[in-house]
Hints:
This protein is 69% helix and 4% strand. The chain has five helices and two strands; from the N terminus they run αααββαα. The chain has helices at 4-27, 40-46, 49-63, 77-91, 94-111; strands at residues 64-65, 68-69. A hairpin with a 2-residue loop joins β1 and β2. α4 (77-91) packs antiparallel against α5. The longest helix is centred in the first third of the chain and has 24 residues, at 4-27. The relative contact order is 0.06. The model has no long low-confidence stretch (mean pLDDT 89).
Amino acid sequence: MMDGNSHWIWAWIATAGLAVVTVITRAFFLIPKRELPLPEWFKRGLRYAPLAALTAVIAPEIVMQNGQLISTWLDARLPAVLCATVYFIARRGILGTIATGMAVYLPLHIGLGW
């Protein structure tokens, strides 16, 4: 039977193991002495990886609540995303896009309770 202290040991072992795996996988491309040859199509695709990852994280937050698709138009996220998108198309500025989205979202969410 395990006593209370052995749980801490397993937590430290798991943390150390995850740290080692993270360092190895992230350093994999830094270890070789010369640059790894990558096909040109792969290099072009890597340019879109951050955008794809950001979309994969943010899109569910926009269209879902508590694991379900939002069922009403009275959700502050929808007009905020619409206004932020229009701003970005017009100006192409990230900071302004974030500010516009939040300027629409906060009054609707806090003020009107959407």
